[in-house]
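DM from R.C. (forwarded with permission)

"hey, sorry to bug you on a friday — could you get me a structure for this? deadline for the figure draft is monday and I only need the backbone to look sensible"
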Amino acid sequence: MHEPAGDSHLITDLRSCLGLAVRVTVTEYFGSRCTLRGMDTRMTPRPSRKRWRAVLVQERARPQGIRAWPNAWWLAVGTVCFGAFMGQLDASIVTLTYGSLGAQFHTSLAAVEWVSLAYLLTLVALVVPAGRLADAHGRKLFYLYGFAVFTVASAACGLAPSLGVLVGFRVVQAAGAAMMQANSVALVTTSAPREKMRTALGVQAAAQALGLALGPTVGGALVSTLGWRWVFGVNVPIGVVALVAGHYLLPRTRARQSAGRFDGLGLALLAVATTSGLLAVSGVSGLPVPGWAVGVMFAVSAVAVWGFAVRQRQAAAPLVDPALLKVRAVSFGLCGALSGYLVLFGPLVLVPVVLTGAGASELTAGLVLTALPAGFALAATGADKVLPTTLSDRGRCVLGALVFTAALAGLLVLPLTVAWLTPVLAVIGLGLGSFTPANNTMIMGAVPARSAGTGGGLVNMARGLGTALGVALVTLALHLADGGAAGARWAVLVLLGASALALGCAWFGPRGRPSPAEEAAR
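My reply, with the result:
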């Protein structure tokens, strides 16, 4: 090989970029261009496998102009709101498909509800481990991958040929949602200044409420016109926009902690406990399974709950950190979050069943349901402007819980018609909109920044359990009372019990600074 003096480095670069031994004669060399035996060629090295691996597993920095802007945190919060909106839109829109799915696949409400329950159970099982892995490997990275999985799975749900396949794709969709939701609260709290945390969480809660508000209306319109498949397809364009925005506007993870050993046994026990328990409830609600199987599933659920509790105390790296649960603001707040979301999602099943059973259309039921999340959004964004600045987060929780508890008590005696349901649902939403952001602020304020993903995962796990219980218990109440007015009253009574629990959690929650023992737990 002939190698001109001074150009030996060029020959080496050519060999490395082509990936094999070559015989080259360089006759001319001009910067990034060279002539090989008279042929003009640009030298463009092929990206190595390591480089592509880095692209896939490393978080991309925001553009310098965005990083330097003092209010860039608002862009991050706004981007996270895409996920908050999309997740709640999907959760609320699906309840409007129950009637169409039951008619098309010739099955019962107890079977159709698994389109929601399969999603929620997967979310509950994966949201905490997703948060822990994100704390170690990057919250932005997991958030964007979650969006990608969610968007692709949404398209697949719209093409599902059977109820079983649809439920399977909902599981995949929930895996993406877990990666998003485990990081949504963490991304907000680590992006916003501490003094703006409650405002930022209120905006995120408002985005969730907007998704809930549009879900019933959009779902009712789509089901009534284009069919149930478009209920899932509507997620796709939103997901594409959110992926692009997140790539450029979300900050990289600054504070990380080691993922440690993964508690696979704890995850398996949690999944078995929740799945078998809700399957048993569905069996009582009309799912065609033998009576003995229902008893076995209840027993399996109880044993798995006990095993999960023991495992979390003994595991070196537990799925749910017992130290965090020792902090009063976290434990009481998570119980309040579960109860609040049970109250929020129970009516999304109850109202369509009651109104369509009385002859109303899905669109009418959706429009009535919109009052609940609309009130939620109004309170979540406007509470800071109306309530005294001296009112603590605990005080806001107590006030909000009192409001939605009183509204549900009224619903026990009022007629369940369009004229009465609309204002009562709006008042319930106002109470929940005051309660939820303040409750989340108390929880996340008690969680160290390095564990923000884990804390956010716990919040979303509580939300998922509350949502699943809202769907399952309302369905159970309607079935046991053979539907009609009696079943609806029993369902309202279930929701009233959950609201009383939320009020108790707020009332007996932390009243001041954490104790030294709680500080040590943090």
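R.C.: lifesaver. Strands lie at 26-30, 33-36, 39-42.
me: no worries. The two ends are 67 Å apart (CA to CA).
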